[in-house]
Amino acid sequence: MKKLVAGLLMTGLLFVGLNVNAQTIVKGNLSALKGATGVNVVFTYNGLTVGKEGKEENYLKRKKQEKDSKEPGSGDKWIEQWNADKEKRYKPKFIQLLSKYTEWQLNEDTKEKYTMVVNTTFLEPGYYVGVSAGHARLNLEISIYEADNMNKALCRITMEDVKAGKGQFDTASRVSEAYAKAGKMIAKFIMKNSKK
User: Among 58, 85, 124, 185, which is least packed, fewest CB within 10 Å?
Assistant: First the structure.
């Protein structure tokens, strides 16, 4: 199990925290969220790499060829679903667990004082082939801003190797479980560190 390193840069102090499956490094100050009623959540995929393919475009190209070789024309439909899952499945799952473990009442249309930008930099979709299965894995960069000043982050958090969803048959279910785990982890981290 990897060590969670909570490096909170406040007045030159470094705090080291809990053991979990991912590493989290925080730069900035979470105290602004003390007493917050919630955050707006924005998902981005800037610089996303997927599995061993590197750039997301490489992964999509391979999957399109793979799908089209089995059923001509199905590759484009698969890519459309891949992109739709980001907004329809991954983001809601993250928000659901973030809400549950912060007790914030969040939804897709939340209008709050603070905005959390969740940028996925790496995504391993995992696999399921009956006798063998692999986790979905994520690396995330999370930045928290005042909603009316998106130029300067109050806090930056990186989460590495968040994994879940082993045994789930379809890709979207595996990846959704990884986002759920990330939502739970970041919620607990915020609740602990925003009180300092």
Answer: 58
